[in-house]
Structure formats: C-alpha cells, structure tokens
Amino acid sequence: MHSSPGLSRYNNLYKSASLNVLVFAHDVASRSYEQAAHNYHFCFLPLYPFSAYPPLQAQTAFLFAAMRGLLLFYFFFSSNLNILREKGLKREMKTMKEEEKNKLLKKARIIADYQFGAGAGDILFSDSIEFILSRTRRISQIEEKGERIATLRSTDGLLTLSIEGAMRLCRFFKYPRIRVVMNEESAEFIKKGGTAFCKHVTDADPEIKAYDEIIVVDEKDNLLATGKAMLSSEEMKSFKHGVAVKVRYGVE
Questions:
Q1: pLDDT at 67 (0 to 100)
Q2: How far apart are alpha carbons 108 and 139 in whole angstroms?
Q3: What burial letters (b/e) apply to 167-178, b meaning 16+ CB within 10 Å?
Q4: Cα 123 to Cα 131: distance, rounded to the nearest angstrom
Q5: Average pLDDT over the chain, rounded to whole?
Q6: Residue range 59-65: mean pLDDT, rounded
Q7: pTM over 0.70
Q8: What letter would DSSP give residue 198?
C-alpha cells in the first residue's frame, strides 16, 4: 500500500522541520549563535516556499513540527541551562575556596615571619597545607597531609608549634635562633614532655623573651621538644631554680 503524495509531502516536511528545530536548539544551548542563526533560517522560514504544496497540508505540517520542535527545544535547553548553572556554581565555589585559602595562607605566613623571623612562614606553610577553621571562620589549626604543623592561639593570634613545625624551624634557622639548649642530664626527661628547668639550661637565643614560642634542643642541637618560654634568655641562664620552658610536646 502506497501513501498519497500529499501525505508523503506532509511526512517529509514534518521530519525536516523537526530536525532543524532540534539542530537550532542544540546550537543555542552550546552557544554557537552564528550556526543557530543559520539553522533558524531553515527552521522557521520554510513556510513561504511551500506554495507548491496544498496550503492547508503545508501549514499544518509546519505547525505540528514547530510545536514539537519547540517543546523539545524547551526541555533540551532547560536541562542544559541547569547543567551550565551547576558547573558555573561549582567553578565559583572552587574559586572562592582558592581565594579564601590564599588569603589565609598569606596571613599565616605573615604571622610566622613576625613571630619567628623572616622566612619562617614559607618553611612552615607550603602551598599544600590545609586550614581547620573555627565556627567564626578563623584559623584554628594548620595541617599538611593530615599532620598538624601549628595552631593559632585565640588569645593573642600567635602560633604554637607541633613537633613537625618545630623540626622545620630547627632545620631552617641556624643555632641558636629560637632555641633553648638543655644539658644531657635533662634531655631524656624533656623528650617525653617533661618541664625544662633553669638549672639544666646551658644556652639560649639572646632574643628570647618570656612567653615566646621556642624549641628545646640538646647540646648537639637535636630537637627535644617545643614549648613556651617562661623567662627571658638571660633570666633562664642565670637562675638556678624555677621553670625555664613550659614544654608542650616532646619528640617522644
């Protein structure tokens, strides 16, 4: 059974218009505007050249094709628009996170340089560090690969060092920078987190002041602990009694 010429013309027109509408929709969604304009010409303007066809068939065919194409265009464009929005939002969030991290990294390095000396910030905090923030979005702890490097004190905005942080500064700064040196007698005790007393101090950085964050080493410059100085350098070397350093963490 053969279809009539009018029906065949209707089917061909319907398929052609539907395909062009879909192509137009794809071009718009992918932002190929010049190509979309080209396809727009073939998609929506072929109504007039169809004078050879019976007018009712030509107009009806184009109307149904255009309606179907526009519906497909709407669903296609809507889904792509949502995808574009999601991608844009993710890029924006990623950019915001990177910008926030860069600001925090700069702040942490400035604090370290101020507290310990020039260059300390770059040695302590590489570009791969991660920040643990408080509920108020302030720096709480600074880690690298899951290991804590330093903590930012909320009381004065300065840093306290972990053993890893102390090791980095010990390797970077030359003796006796930020060091308190303990004799062999007390070394094992301090390694385990014991308090460093004045009577065991053999040397100290002359720049150390009370409440400075310092590192404790033995007479061979091996790291023993990290902690807070309770006295100035001259005081801890001259006193025979009292606490020189309140140890936070020993290497053992």
A1: 65
A2: 9
A3: ebbbebbeebbb
A4: 16
A5: 78
A6: 55
A7: no
A8: G
The residue length of the chain stands at 252
| pLDDT above 60 for 52 | no
Distance between CA atoms of 127 and 19, rounded to whole angstroms?
52
Pairwise CA distance, residues 189 & 96, whole Å: 47
User: Of 6, 43, 7, 13, which Cα lies nearest the Cα of 25?
Assistant: 43
Q: Which tokens in the block code for residue 171?
A: 């390797």
160: exposed, middle or buried (C-beta count within 10 Å: 0-12, 13-18, 19+)?
middle
- The residues spanned by each domain of the chain are 5-86, 174-250
How far CA 117 is from CA of 66, 120, 121, in Å, comes to 73, 6, 8
Q: What does R_g of the chain's alpha carbons equal in angstroms?
A: 37
Specify which residues 159 forms β-bridges with: 152
In this predicted model, what pLDDT tens digit does every residue of 87-116 receive, in sequence order? 655 564 455 588 888 999 999 999 999 999
Closest CA to 236 of 210, 213, 214: 210
C-alpha–C-alpha distance, residues 42 and 33, integer Å: 14
CA torsion 75-80-82-87 (nearest 10°) is 170
Exposure string over 132-146, b if 16+ CB within 10 A, otherwise e:
eeeeeeebebbbbee
Fold topology of 174-250? 2.30.130
Residue given tokens 């040397």 in the structure block: 203
The amino acid that residue 62 corresponds to is F
Task: Let me know the angle formed at the C-alpha of 34 by 32 and 38, rounded to the nearest 5 degrees.
Answer: 115
